[in-house]
Amino acid sequence: MTNPRQKVVLQIHQHSKSAEDYQGRPGADIFGELVFNDAAQIQYLSKDVYKRLKATTAVGEPLDAGIAQEVAQGMKEWALSHGATHYTHWFIPMTGLAAEKHDTFLEPTPTGRAIAEFDGKTLIKGEPDASSFPSGGTRATFEARGYTAWDPTSPAFIIKEANGATLYIPTAFVSYTEEALDFKTPLLRSMEALSVQALRALRLFGNESAKRVFTTMGPEQEYFLIDRRFYEQRPDLIAAGRTLFGAAPYRGQELEDHYFGSIRERILAFMMDLDRELWRLGIPAKTRHNEVAPAQFEIAPVFEKSSITADHNMLVMEMLRRVALRHGLVCLLHEKPFAGINGNGKHNNWSMATDRGENLLEPGGTPHENAQFLAFLTAVLSAVDKYAELLRVGISGPGNDHRLGANEAPPAIISVFLGEQLDDIVSQLEKGPASSSKQGGTMELGVSVLPPLPKDATDRNRTSPFAFTGNKFEFRAVGSTAPVHFPNTILNTIVAEQLDELATELEKPGDLAPKLAAALQSRIRAHKRVVFNGNGYSEAWHKEAAKRGLPNLRTTPDALHAMSKPEYKALFAKYRVLDHREYEAREEILWERYVKVVAIEALATADIARNQILPAALKHQAQVAGALRAAEGLVREPQNAAAKALGTVVSDLNALDAAVAALGQAQEGADGAATLPLRAEAYRDAVLPAMLAVRSVVDRMEGYVSDELWPLPKYREMLFVY
Ligand code: ADP
Ligand code: MG
To answer: What is the pTM assigned to this prediction?
Structure first.
């Protein structure tokens, strides 16, 4: 006899999907074919309009409203040529999931036919009903309407389905009082703030040519793939995105044989399709490989401007989900889908570059270039130390709490890895301006010539949450499901402030070299405590970090309490990234989200325990009791094993019943807490442990309840059979 779960195990080898033959169809031919990119714009717009649009997209000049009509026409013609029937403004509301509402181009004509229409006004502004999106109290119901505003810096694209095509127009989502209701608007504002301050600093180093500084970002995205038939039998995965039950498999990741291992045919077929879907959308997907955990994988694109990457990463996550389904797989993006097995992260590679492509975190070849590099590096270092709590806020969330500090992801303590060479240079800078001088036009900082910095992965410290990796920083603690917008908004804003302060100091009268040496010295003295090159997983580091006074905000509620500090609010207001109301709205939404997510998990835990586990265990009890009774009078030996089995299941059933009841009470108590933060803390301190108590009984039962009675696909199946 096999149950539905066991049937899937037996069926999987039959899975076959007719493989696409991509040979003779080079990737380069399709790259960007579904994007209204330069090539499409040149074809569909007049030269003049193209140039004016380009000025907006390339250097961030405000959009020339006069060209909207023609751009809309060109975009429509291009979209129709791809078979599009609909368009949508595409935006990232505070749910963190992209939102879309489709309208057709078709308008009825008086003759009873229809023609495709799309005007400049519709391109520039959309008016979705905003009242059902979280606003954190920014919008009273009487002003429930919000609008979407075209973001011309992010190119429009087309999503093709088997049944048709839709034009997607990336937009910002704001209220009628111009408050940002989305993730995109603050990111764009933070990039603007950083650009202004970075240009001031660059001018001091004699750079007159740069017109704009962009932040650049490349996210390495981790994910799991499991067979869809298993997924459908796991209500916890469906409701919560993570398993709430599951005994540890006898084989986990201890053999360390999955990372960079050869990729199974079924997975490679998925990856081939995925890469091509992404290339068509102009997303430069570059690297694909097996990750550390069984059934875990990674995709990394080439970096782009942060705002483009942020949109692209939303599309990558969307395409991962869609393409997986086509292969009978489900993509799990949650930070911790399986307990005891590595979770998913998103390494946020970050740097700053001028519009001429000069990477400002690339060490230079001359003392002058190095002085500039060290100035920018120090600004980042100071920002990360001063605002470590804010960076922690940016990576907070109920999912990531399971990862941070679980000795697989960097700890919740924010520190910076510089590596030996840079560390040495920083120590020299700390010694100060005594030896700094301006000689023969070059600038000496009292630092011996920069040694070549290693850029290969070999000596990288994977335990550091914020590591310098040769010409960029890698912010490693970002959650895998998170839109990258928010952590990058924070990062850009805190660095903007530090560049502002540095530029202000250096703009004072006097020679640049001694001023710079003094400025760097004082900053390094103040902030070197954040530098840590050792093992971030070690207990010793936790002690050392506490001694250094570095914050250790272990959970999301801890981080959100820190978020309310007035100086943080003031920072975002000062650089016009978030005003007080926008900031407070985000605080509120993050608290709410935490409570809602854990509440759903708690309900799912109780329901699965009651409706699936309890009946299975009762059947098991009946089987054992029946066997015991059937043997009575036939067997002379005492039935120790059967009697023991019966005793175990009876006592665990009682334990399960009690644990489920306790969970219900804990949740009731949490729901009754007076304020949102108190509710969140009760969910953290009472409900999550109560869920774990239920789980521990269930996982124990999984170890002895007859395999054919066990309803939930097991870890050893989901992670190894695909
Ligand atoms: P790895 O970390 O696997 O050794 P790389 O260092 O080449 O690989 O890059 C990892 C990620 O960092 C990629 O997404 C890459 O595009 C991105 N990256 C490289 N340079 C920069 C940069 N200047 N700014 C932002 N991201 C970058
Ligand atoms: Mg990396």
So the answer is: 0.94
